[in-house]
Amino acid sequence: MLKTAVGIAHADYAQGLVRTNPGLVDFVEIPFEQLFRVPSAIEIKSLVPVVLHCASLSMAGDVPPDEELTSALERWVRETETPWLGEHLAYVRADGRILGGAAHEALLDASAPYNVGYTVNPQYSAPILERVVANGEAWSQRLGIPVLLENGPTYFSMPGSTMSQFEFIQALCRRSKGLGLLLDLSHLMITCANLGLDAMEMLRLLPLERVVEVHVSGIQSEGGMSWDDHGKRAPTNVFELLAALRSRVQPRAVTLEYNWDAGFPLDAVVEDVSRVREIMAPTS
Amino acid sequence: MSPDQTQALVAKCIVDPTFLAQVVNAAALAERSDVTSEFAAAKELGAEECQRLQQFQGFITKVKHNALRRVLPNTFRLLSSTGLELRFFMYFAKAYIIARQAGPLPCAEHLDLLGPALAAFLGDTADVDACTLTMEMFEHERTLHDLPLSAAAAAANTRWVAIGNCVVVQRHFDVVALAEELQTGHSSVCPRRRTHYLLYQALPADATTRIREVDMPTALILNQLLAGRSEADIAQQMSATIGCVVTAEEIGVFADEAIDAGIIAEPA
To answer: With an 8 Å Cβ cutoff, are B69 and A118 in contact?
Structure first.
């Protein structure tokens, strides 16, 4: 019978928690960028399997990662033995030196290309869709493992978009049979809250059979908007979304992302891992 | 604009707070014929999205402070619980991005940059109590971080030396109790206003910082003992500052008690 693995995102407390609570989680998800900076983070693999996450490939952008980053990613894919690579459906870098057709040449300056250092939702348009599909499939082939694309939280509308994020994801799954989804339910909830949409309804519109991994984290309301917050527990409505998803499909993994605050209350982590396990339990 | 140009424009706005502020201002003005880059960007993005981009820039700045949460966990939790976190990081984004252009900031430099910015922001936006409370939490956490790292107090020409690094500070809120409450993950906290004095003592032997509450006269005497003043000087100072009549001999007895309590020691 299929079983969903339940894990946590790597945080300062992860190694201690895993050591003192054997069997609590089935895996720990580590950002590639952390291993790049602090290779010793891999030590946790002696205690529990590791899943690799990434935010550097800039799938929707026009500036690919450099060779150093690429080689390091290949190395960490091998060393972690990750079953897949989760990456954001986003761009991180943009080459601003492209002047043709720009409304004003000073828009694009000598400081380009720009590296935001954070994932930014792309323009949801046909050309970007083609790029994401091509990049996703190329990375999957190069790394020798499935690449999962993660929906980002929507905080602003990218000019020139011709479809919604949901339509983009639907089109992506139609266009590519190989790419899987990493569905971040908190991001979904934030997007719907900020755009005035019904999250349950939007969940039904997504190709859930393509979801391999699910992310769950906290949400903060401030400035009239909802924001991603890995320093807070996931709210009840995110767990309700998880239950709704579970009623339709059984993804391979659910990751609790409580990794922004080194002092995150450990009893809350333990409680929410149990809550996820209950929701995801196989039905007979 | 092509998709890549649009994405580049958004990226430029995020990495260049000065430019984004100019774009937001341009978006708020009526249409103009003199086409500058700010007006062109404002036209492309629209006024509402420009403001949302400023919020997003603040949000990214906040996320890039996650490592600093190890030093200031409760300052950030307090900002979050009072609904000021994002606004602060929107305010701080420009200074932070400029300071970080040459690479990641060393912790002390980062705290030196953040502390005054936080005080200035709270001074403009929060009420006096919220401002005092948050800044006292910042100073409390900064003391806990800095005290074990700072150089030992100079002992030359002083009659007493501190055991470990010590500092005595007046607080108007019970930051120690509040920190415990925030650490347990309570979303609604109840800060207690209470003027009191805390002695922080970094103990190198076990790499901890001990915090003890002391009364006001004790705080004043300890501060002067730690500064290496004589019993007679301290007695005179006590009389001058708080009208407390105390003899040099009594200060000597107090110093012996402080030695017994492991706060100061006579130089070897």
So the answer is: no
Burial class of residue A98 (count of CB atoms within 10 Å of its CB; 0-12, 13-18, 19+)? middle
Compute and round to an integer the Cα radius of gyration of chain B.
25
Q: Under the phi-then-psi rule, with left for phi > 0, alpha for psi from -120 to 50, and beta for the rest, what region is A6?
A: beta
* Cβ-based burial of B66 (10 A; exposed 0-12, middle 13-18, buried ≥19): middle
Chain B residue numbers with beta carbons less than 8 Å from the beta carbon of A160 are: 1, 3, 6
Using the predicted structure, report yes or no on whether residue A211 has a pLDDT greater than 90.
Answer: yes
Q: Contact B11/A116 with Cβ under 8 angstroms?
A: yes
Query: What confidence score (pLDDT) does residue B4 get?
Result: 92
Q: Decide if domain B151-268 falls under CATH 1.10.287.
A: no
Question: Looking at residue A136, which CATH number applies to its domain?
Answer: 3.20.20.150
* CB-CB under 8 Å, B64 with A118: yes
What's this model's pTM, rounded to 2 decimal places? 0.91
Torsion of CA A61, A65, A66, A69, to 10 degrees: 170
- Cite the beta strand spans of chain B per DSSP E: 161-162, 165-173, 193-203, 208-214, 264-265
Say what the alpha-carbon torsion angle B73, B75, B78, B82 is, to the nearest 10 degrees. Answer: -130
Burial zone of B55 (CB within 10 Å; 0-12 exposed, 13-18 middle, 19+ buried)? buried
CA distances from B176 to A128, B26, B193, B198, B224 (A): 52, 46, 12, 9, 24
Q: Mean pLDDT in chain A?
A: 94
- Residues of chain B with Cβ-Cβ distance to A235 below 8 Å are none
CB contact under 8 A, A96 and B87: no
**Encoded tokens for A38:** 């602090």
Name the residue ranges covered by the structural domains of chain B.
Answer: 1-62, 64-146, 151-268
Confidence (pLDDT) at B240: 86
> Locate tokens 């958004």: which residue?
B10
- CA A241, A247, A252, A253 dihedral sign is positive
CB A219 within 8 A of CB A226: yes
**What does the alpha-carbon distance between residue A124 and residue A102 come to, in Å, rounded to a whole number?**
19
Cβ neighbours for B50, distance < 8 A, ≥ 6 positions apart: B13, B20, B23, B24, B27, B42
Over residues A98-141, the pLDDT tens digits come to 655 555 565 666 667 889 999 999 999 999 999 999 999 999 99
What's the pLDDT at A109? 64
Is B40 in Cβ contact with A94 (below 8 Å)?
no
Q: Are B90 and B58 in contact (CB under 8 A)?
A: yes
Q: Give chain A's end-to-end CA distance (angstroms, integer).
A: 8
CA distance A122 to A90: 5
Of the ranges A62-76, B30-44, B178-192, which one carries the lowest mean pLDDT score?
Answer: B30-44
Interface confidence, given as ipTM, is 0.94
Q: What is the total count of domains within chain A? A: 1
pLDDT at position A1: 55
The reported pLDDT for the residue numbered B155 is 47
